[in-house]
Amino acid sequence: MHNHRTLDHRNLYRLPWSFTDNIISWLEPTKKCNIYCEGCYSANNPVGHKSLEQVREDLATFLKYRNTDAVSIAGGDPLTHPKVVEVVRMVADRELKPILNTNGFALTPELLGELKAAGLKGITFHIDSLQRRPGWTGKSETELNELRLHFAEMV
Fold it and tell me: What is the CATH number of the domain that holds 89?
């Protein structure tokens, strides 16, 4: 007699990842940004911030259809969303790992503290020479290391 087990695809991973088994989901609570980056698709999008209810629906979709472990919170720039701390908390409350993808322009030590208290697990900073970042325009990648160090020390 064979012992047959029912496999739940949400517990399996394979490479390359497909839509349903990629452990990192991408959440865009806003399309707004506070700087302009060459090549950014969000710059031409008229949609602004999602409501917390829309974010809640996105998270429910991730949990229903994907084997999500972490949620990359991006945009535009998520720090422009007036409820970004609540967005991070909503992700963390679902036992998912919130990771913020930001240019860092609006990040302050105080906001960082609030984000960490809400459950933030990581931050990815987008800093490059193609951004029109006030005070940093025309800088080389090497010169931008000073700005990268600033954010590394803040975190």
Answer: 3.20.20.70
Q: Which long-range contacts (CB under 8 A, 24 or more apart) does 106-111 make?
A: 106/34, 106/77, 106/79, 106/80, 107/79, 107/151, 107/154, 109/154, 111/79, 111/85
- The answer to whether position 78 is within a domain reads yes
- Other CB atoms closer than 10 Å to residue 97's CB: what's the count? 17
- Residues in the chain with pLDDT < 70? 1-21, 43-46
Give, for 97, the enclosing helix (H) or strand (E). strand 97-102
**6-15 contacts: CB < 8 A, separation 24 or more?**
9/67, 10/66, 10/67, 11/67, 12/67, 13/67
Query: Which amino acid would we find at residue 66?
Result: R
Is 130 inside any structural domain?
A: yes
Specify the pLDDT at position 11: 60
Judge whether 85 and 110 are in contact, CB under 8 Å: no
